[in-house]
Amino acid sequence: MRHQFDEDVSVREIAEGEFEAQFSSSWLAGPALLGGYSMVVGLRALATALPQPDPLSVTAHFLGPLVPGPAHLRTDVVKRGRTVSSGQVAISQEGRERLRLLCMFGELEAQPCSRHMGEGPPALPPPDECVAELDDGNEFHQTMWDNFEYRISPDAGGTLTGGRSGDAVTRAWIRLADGRDPDPLALVAVVDALPPVIWEIGVTGWVPTLELTVHLRARPAPGWLRIVARTRFAQGRLFEEDAEIWDSQDRLVTQSRQLAMIPG
Amino acid sequence: MRHQFDEDVSVREIAEGEFEAQFSSSWLAGPALLGGYSMVVGLRALATALPQPDPLSVTAHFLGPLVPGPAHLRTDVVKRGRTVSSGQVAISQEGRERLRLLCMFGELEAQPCSRHMGEGPPALPPPDECVAELDDGNEFHQTMWDNFEYRISPDAGGTLTGGRSGDAVTRAWIRLADGRDPDPLALVAVVDALPPVIWEIGVTGWVPTLELTVHLRARPAPGWLRIVARTRFAQGRLFEEDAEIWDSQDRLVTQSRQLAMIPG
């Protein structure tokens, strides 16, 4: 069975290392496409050239707005290794590069042992006691929200649940709305799927991401994922947003950090 | 006055976008050079091609061991922008690429306002009540330690102070030993200058870094820096190490995260 997600992130090779993609208008996260979505499209292209199956690390530099419509991808292998390999992707629209990715692939474990876990999964009420309707109080049209099912913690999701918590943290259950089980590729979109937690502390509107790095830590088990996103330091115009995703077996499957800017 | 640090990270342009460097044997961190040191050398080369003065974000993929001796650097501008610019650097030794960098430059503030600080600088006794001698209980020859002055917190630096805390965190004062004041460039070396905190929980020996991303958050004030490094999640063979540096004016100046691997 082919899910909508796989349709939306598909690429077509047109020459060695050259791909075409059609960015879907169902992934808008404000005035531009969700960064994590375009990163998955880039990973799909690069994966064809590398010997290992799973992304371990993906770094994105957002150079210009990615929008629905045709896109051109150029992939380059940086190193093919026995354990890990690296490559880069340049995604252009209308002849201008909009996104640069530097990616590392390897082989993830499905059931890694816990050696040292300073924290466990985020504490959340059961999904049916959480808030299913996103209300961001924002006029942006977020088509991408329809691609996910959210169950937001009532006590840590202020803006999203109609209030404002004053603490820059959101905790939620999340899964793809099309019924597709998570895999490392999809996690790169999921980790970017919450609205900016900085909205919780009174910053409003579009906060452009400069850089986003996602680490994949294990192959996820099927079922609901739990995500926690947090901004600890907003200083001057710069802030970071960290996120972690845990799977239904209580394993850490993804960690991310982005550097973003408050428009001046 | 020219400091030893600037001597060690100097580059010489030999053609447009092509540089030579001489990696110093005084930056060994075990069997290979300190990653943060070679990142600074790469940033020095790329800085000549970009209009903004400060690194904002640097991502490194470690592809092979960097060793003392000659190195070749190739820089490519990804995007020259009005506010931020991106570029990449490939560092090769003996004809093989060993390090790939993806870097963003911009202009950092010296005195950014605090909008939301979830934590303050790490709690540390005054420098003269901390431990000045590193003792890692490890046979690796760490010449790079002589480039810094360390004052390690007696209660959060187990391995380094001769014990083992059992908690994967280290807090310390740190500054360059040559008397040079910190700047954003030097912070990229400083943030990588503590021994792996995973040693605190019983993992020993060489733990190769796969990927390291450093964010610069403000121009540092002169004087002692405070650094805190922490591993929260070691699961299977993968773990992250996060670090933060604060300056003498209690401002967050650097944040970093690396993905590293426990050899199998």
Largest sheet of chain A: 13 strands, antiparallel
| Oligomeric grouping of the chains | homodimer
Molecular shape of chain A: globular
Helix-strand string of chain A: HEEHEEEEEEEHEEEEE
Helix content bin of chain A: under 10%
Measured between the Cα atoms of the first and last residue of chain A, the distance is: 47 Å
Helix/strand/pairing category of chain A: mainly beta
How large is the count of helical segments of chain A?
3
Largest interface, counted by CB within 8 Å of the partner chain's CB: A-B, 54 and 54 residues
How many individual β-strands of chain A? 14
Strand content of chain A: 35-45%
What Rg of chain A, in angstroms, do the CA atoms define? 18 Å
**Low-confidence runs of chain A (pLDDT<50, min 5 residues)?**
none
Instruction: Average the pLDDT over all residues of chain A and give the rounded result.
Output: 93
What does this structure look like?
2 copies of one chain form a homodimer. With about 260 residues, chain A is mainly β. Helix content of chain A is about 10%, strand content about 40%. Chain A contains 3 helices and 14 strands. The first copy, chain A, has helices at about 5-10, 35-45, 185-190, and strands spanning about 10-15, 20-25, 55-60, 70-80, 85-95, 95-105, 115, 150, 170-175, 210-215, 225-230, 235, 240-245, 250-260. In chain A, strands 1, 2, 3, 4, 5, 6, 8, 9, 10, 11, 12, 13 and 14 form a 13-stranded antiparallel β-sheet that branches. In chain A, helix 2 (about 35-45) runs antiparallel to helix 3. The longest helix of chain A has 13 residues, at about 35-45. The radius of gyration of chain A is 18 Å and the shape is globular. Chain A starts with a helix and ends with a strand. The mean pLDDT of chain A is about 95. At the A-B interface, strand 3, strand 5, strand 6, strand 7 and strand 10 of A face strand 3, strand 5, strand 6, strand 7 and strand 10 of B. Strand 12 of chain A pairs antiparallel with strand 7 of chain B.
